[in-house]
């Protein structure tokens, strides 16, 4: 599977993007107030923390890890904390530096997010809590915001 990424200018050989593998790197679920939490009126307050990281592997292979941490409180009590590190190995080559940064910072996390969302939902349901239906995330917008923040701060 080889396709251009968001208008990137391919090198002489042409740009290549190929998903090699998707896997769970780490998985955690804690329900510290169980079983008492199940006897309370359910008025959840959901907090989602999201982060990504990338690592160059050998040749043109990269690992991208998307971490989603959901903390749900019911009143003052923490009902549960669920976290997944959804990872993927991608073959990416023939992109200029800007396009490579966008591919690793937005395009790859976009691919990983549905897997992470499904994993979190499944874990939460198995913990006997209502389904957790996370809204889609616009990684392109988050990437653009981070670039703007870095430019404002004078970072490279």
Structural class: alpha+beta
Molecular shape: elongated
Within the largest sheet, what's the order of strands?
Answer: 1-4-3-2
Rounded to the nearest angstrom, the radius of gyration is: 19 Å
Can you tell me the CATH topology?
A: Bacterial Protein-export protein SecB
The proportion of residues forming helix, as a percent range, comes to 25-40%
Q: Which sequence of SSEs, written as H and E, runs from N to C?
A: EEEEHH
Distance between the termini: 32 Å
Key attributes of the depicted protein:
alpha+beta; Bacterial Protein-export protein SecB; four-stranded antiparallel beta sheet
What do these coordinates show?
The structure is a single chain. The chain is α+β, with helices and mostly antiparallel strands and about 160 residues long. It has one domain (about 15-155): SecB-like (Bacterial Protein-export protein SecB). The protein has helices at about 95-125, 140-155, and strands spanning about 15-30, 45-55, 60-75, 75-95. It has a four-stranded antiparallel sheet. A hairpin with a 2-residue loop joins strand 3 and strand 4 (about 75-95). The longest helix has 30 residues, at about 95-125. About 25% of the residues are buried. The model is unreliable at about 5-10 (pLDDT under 50). Homotetramer, a dimer of dimers. One homotetramer interacts with 1 SecA dimer. Its main location: cytoplasm. Belongs to the SecB family.
